[in-house]
Specification:
The chain has about 260 residues and is α+β, with helices and mostly antiparallel strands. The chain has helices spanning about 5-20, 50, 60-65, 85-95, 170; strands spanning about 30-35, 40, 45-50, 55, 70, 80-85, 100-105, 110-115, 125, 130-135, 150-160, 175, 190-195, 205-210, 215-220, 230-235, 240-250, 250-255.
Length: about 260
């Protein structure tokens, strides 16, 4: 064999050694699924991905993902919205490329911070899985329905991410739905609201105390609210808008010192 052929053979062997075989081309690492619910409850100061999302996939990768801090928890009793894009940035900072995960579910998750005692409501089923008793819709609910006990039931649900909202059935009775709720949906703060005492657009009486004089004027509520809430109202006569406190279902009191009726 000539020297030229020997050199060519050596180059060919080097190329074959450095290049992956046919089976390696297109090979991909198995991805994990990150399922974002619409809402999640946490009790700690840091938001761990494993607390705000349901994770499935290769065990080692899932464990890594679960421990990624994706943000700071809101103050106790408050909430914050966590976007997919924000989570992707945090994954990169943790050395995990977003291509390793497949996002499913909601585009964002609203995270509520609850007392640590909420975790005490968790228990295990017969197979050792964590479950929690939650309030669910007993039937399909329309937006704007005021809930009664017949509209609700209690169910045990498996907890895969953060603990579900821990409320009693009675806590939801009398509240109003903010959206359509399919039967069997576990109810959270996102699904309900307190029924406003005054609705936006309601005719109200604007009440102003100026010294020993009480002045009233007709008005229209420009916001909804409950007893004691400050809402914006518009004087029907002057068209001026002011903020006032709801004192009953028909009256909004404007707190001013020495001011005339708006």
């Amino acid at each position: 064999m000539t020297a030229r052929k020997l050199v060519a053979l050596a180059v060919l062997l080097a190329v074959l050694t450095l290049c992956p075989g046919p089976g390696a081309w297109g090979a991909e690492q198995e991805r994990a699924v990150v399922f974002l619910p619409e809402a999640a409850n946490v009790s700690g100061k840091d938001l761990l991905l494993g607390e705000v999302a349901e994770l499935e996939g290769p065990p080692e990768l899932v464990q890594q993902l679960a421990e990624v801090v994706v943000g700071t928890a809101p103050s106790l009793g408050s909430s914050r919205v966590l976007l997919r894009g924000h989570i992707e940035v945090r994954l990169r900072h943790a050395g995990l490329h977003p291509s390793l995960v497949e996002f499913q579910g909601a585009e964002s998750v609203r995270v509520f911070r609850v007392p640590a005692a909420a975790a005490a409501s968790l228990r295990e089923d017969g197979e050792g899985r964590p479950v929690q008793e939650v309030v669910v819709a007993a039937r399909d609910l329309k937006r704007g329905e005021i809930l009664s006990a017949d509209d609700l039931r209690l169910e045990l649900r498996e907890v895969r991410g953060a603990a579900l909202e821990s409320r009693s059935l009675e806590d939801f009775v009398g509240l109003r739905t903010t959206r359509m709720v399919p039967a069997g949906t576990a109810l959270t703060q996102l699904h309900v609201e307190v029924v406003p005492l005054i609705e936006r657009g309601d005719a109200v009486t604007i009440l102003v105390h100026t010294g020993s004089v009480t002045v009233t004027a007709p008005g229209v509520a420009r916001q909804s609210g409950g007893l004691g809430d400050l809402i914006e109202v518009e004087n029907t006569l002057s068209r001026q808008r002011v903020a006032g406190e709801i004192v009953d279902a028909h009256t909004v009191q404007v707190h001013t010192k020495g001011a005339a009726m708006p």
